[in-house]
Each structure stands twice: as structure tokens, then as C-alpha cells.
Amino acid sequence: MLQETVSRLSCIAQCVNPIILCNDDHRFLMAEHLKAVGVKPETIILEPNGRNTAPAIAVAAIAAMEKYEDAQLLVLPSDHLIADANIFAEAVVRGMNLVDTGKFVTFGIPPNRPETGYGYIRPGVPIVDAGGDNDMPAFTVQSFVEKPDLQTAEKYLESGNYFWNSGIFMFTAAHYLKELADNEPDIVENTKKAWTNAENDIGFIRLRADAFTLCNAISIDDAVMTKSQSVAVIPLDAGWNDIGSWNSLWSEGKKDADGNYTHGDVLTHNVANSVLYSEGRLIAAIDLDDHVVVETADAVLVTKRGSTQDVGKITALLTQQNRPQVNTHKKVYRPWGSYENIESSAGYKVKKLVVPPGRKLSLQYHNKRAEHWVVVRGIARVRIDEEIFMLEKDQSTYIPIGAKHQLENPGNDLLEIIEVQTGGYLEEDDIVRLEDDYGRA
Question: 55 and 161 share a domain?
């Protein structure tokens, strides 16, 4: 969905390369996704921790104004489905005209069901701007409304007087920072410090953590949009959906005759109106209605379809119990590619390494573990101490404890290696890097 979001900008001639904000842990995954669709970002900014949308957008505004003093920002979450990119582009161009008149612009989605998972916007009077484009309607905003209960959502739908709040915004960077400073001056002060003292980390911009952490964790809605007197809403009927929940995926996805959305290896008996999503193992489901079952390498989720918004409560429990699933995943991205944990037990660990063409791992050694490498795809150039040699599919090598070693993919195909680690300590901090193309310590 990130790829779809950035690719959608190609329909808008005025857009320059995007500014991307993401969590530090996702930086290499982010870079790979952008590269896959041929999008070169203006910059990728790494948040040391999540402080909600108002501080994140402030950083983007500061970064944009360094290069474009009069920059207009189009703020896009990365998990939205928009079926008609051309209608979306027309709405954005309309928004640019309104931003030129000093407006904050948001986009309202005509609701088609009583949704309790979205905020709502109540529009005011139509906006007729002299010299502007009035073919696409726009309205003042009478009020922003928090996520309602079901009965209230049904009333909103019946009245026809409300839009869903899409979470897509437009404004000038300078206007945003001015109004944010009026309402949340500490955020502007601390984001400027975080940006000014940021570090360039192999192409990523790493914000100064101590300054950014001081920012109030608040949304752009609460910090600016609900308080500003110059907000306009443009109706956007372009097949929008916030695929932020499994229920949303069920609503928009292609379903079978029993009303089930399925993905991957799934078998069912007497199952209806459910989401069954497998990334690997077989899901066998019997006598379910209105359920969500999601299988990944990390965990399995089972919930009623109407309760998917409560998944954060499980995340809170995982955090309270110090579960490893909060911070570690089976598949981990690195600047040289990725590795996936396959199996581990006392004294050994098995991984799958994937190295794209032209990439190589650091020259390194381990104090507490030995490694066995088996090539299962591609060609590998291997260095062990002073010896350099090639390995092809079905060939293997052994790296003793303390031996300097390096793995490189000199070919035109992906290199896939099965790595078996043995020893008394097998954690990632037992890596001593001697040389590294990516500037890591």
C-alpha cells in the first residue's frame, strides 16, 4: 500500500519527490519498497519513537521549507486504498487552489455505511473563490466529530450531512508551522531542534531522539485542524478506504460466494462473512461466522470481525509482558538485504539470508559463534580470513569462531543462503564489524 500511495502521485504534475517519515526499524523495508516502484524520495526521515501525526508533519514541513520556502504539503497516510487516482488528482489540484487562498484543506469521504472506526466532518457553507476552480465543490468545516457509537453513526449516514475524515491534508508548510506554534509551541521548538541536530545515516535522516521525544504526542486534527478558523473540506468520491483494519479489508476485498475474503493457503467448512489470511501455514476453519483469522510467521490473530479495532489492546498486553513479538520479527531487513529466522534452540539457530545483486554484508567476525553457509540460490563470493572463493547452488562453507568473513552477491540474481549458527551465544550483538559499505559501527 505504500507503493500504491507514492505511485499515485505520478498523476499530479506538481508533485516533487516525496518526503517519507517512518519508524527507525522500518527504514530498509521502506527503501526497498520505494526502489521497487522506481520512486526516489526527497528524504527518508526516521522517527526515534512515535509522537503521533502533528510532530511528524512538523518535521516534514521544516524539511520541505529548507528547499522550497513556499512549499505546499500534501499529507498522505500510507495505508489508504483509492480506486480512482484521476479523481484523486483532480481533488488535489482543487486543494492547491484553496491552499493558495490561505486555507487548510482536508478531504471528506461520502459515507456508505455507519462506520464507528472513523472520525467525521460536518461541512458548512459552499466556498466560491473568485478566480478559482469551482467545478469541484468545497465547503467550510462546521465541525470535526470524534469516532461515534453505532447509533450515532447511523444517524450521520441517514442525515447525509457528514463526511468521513480521510486523514489526507493540504496546506503550506509555513502556515502549518505558524498555527501549530500558536497551539503547541513546544512541538515546533522541539521538532526544529530534532531536525537541526539530526544525523545523516547512510541516506536516512535520523532525528535527534532527546528533542523529538519531548514533543507532545498529539494528532494534527487535535493540534491544528479542529482549532483553525480557515479549514476547507473537499468531497472525495474516488473509492477511498482506510485499510487500517481487517474489517476494512473484508469490506473492500473480493469475497467468495459465502462472503469470505481469503488469502493464502485456506480451507473452510461452514464459514461465512469472514477474513482468513495466511502468509504461510494452512488455515483450516470450521463453523465460523463474522470472524477474522490471520496467520503470519510471528503470530496468529483470531477475533470477531467487528472487534478488529481492539487489536491495540493485545499489543498493550504484549508490551506489559515484555514479549519479544513487540520488537522482533521473523523477517528482518538490513541495508544488504534481509534475513529470516527459521528455527532456534539451545546451541543453534537457523536463518535464511537474501542478498540482492551487487550487495554485500560487512567484513566481520564473531566471538561466540561459528557459522555454516549453504547456497540454495544464486552465486556467492565468500571471504574467510585472507581466502576469497566462489560458491554456487548446493555448495557450502564453514566459518569458525573468530574468523573474519564476508558474503557478497556478484551475480544478477538473488543470492539465498541457509545459515546455521552454533555456539553458546547467538544474539545479534555478537558481531564485530571491520569494514562496512553502509556506515554502520
Answer: yes
Q: Is the same domain home to 16 and 164?
A: yes
Per-position DSSP letters for 272-316, written without gaps between them: ES-EEEESSSPEEEEEEESEEEEE-SS-EEEEEGGGGGGHHHHHH
Q: Which pairing describes strands 19-23 and 43-47: parallel, antiparallel, or unpaired?
A: parallel
Q: Is the dihedral of CA 417, 422, 426, 429 positive or negative?
A: negative
β partners of residue 384: 387, 405
Task: Report, as an integer, the average pLDDT of 217-226.
Answer: 96
Which residue blocks in 68-170 are alpha helix, DSSP H?
85-100, 150-159
In this predicted structure, the answer to whether residue 327 has a pLDDT above a threshold of 90 is no
Q: pLDDT of 239-292, one tens digit each?
A: 998 877 788 788 878 899 999 999 999 999 999 999 999 999 999 999 999 999
Amino acid at position 290, single letter: D
Q: What is the pLDDT of residues 343-371, one digit of tens each?
A: 999 999 999 999 999 999 999 999 999 99
* Predicted local confidence at residue 27, as pLDDT: 87
Closest CA to 126 of 118, 134, 116: 134
- Residue 95 backbone dihedrals phi, psi, to 5 degrees: -65, -35
* Cα–Cα dist 9/321, whole Å: 42
Rounded mean pLDDT of 53-81? Answer: 95
| CATH number, domain containing residue 417 | 2.60.120.10
- pLDDT score recorded for residue 309: 74
- Number of domains making up the chain: 3
Q: Of 200, 217, 242, which closes a domain?
A: 242
Mean of pLDDT over the chain: 93
E-only strand ranges, 362-441 = 363-365, 369-377, 380-384, 387-391, 396-399, 405-408, 415-423, 432-435
Residue 376's CB is within 10 A of a number of other CB atoms, namely 13
Give backbone dihedrals phi and psi of 194, rounded to 5 degrees, phi first: -65, -35
Residue with cell 461452514: 270
pLDDT at 298 (0 to 100)? 87
Among 291, 318, 345, the domain-final residue is 318
What cell does 241 get? 478506504
Its domain, for residue 11, covers 2-242
Say yes or no: 192 and 107 in one domain: yes
Reported as type and span, the H/E element at residue 234 is strand 231-235
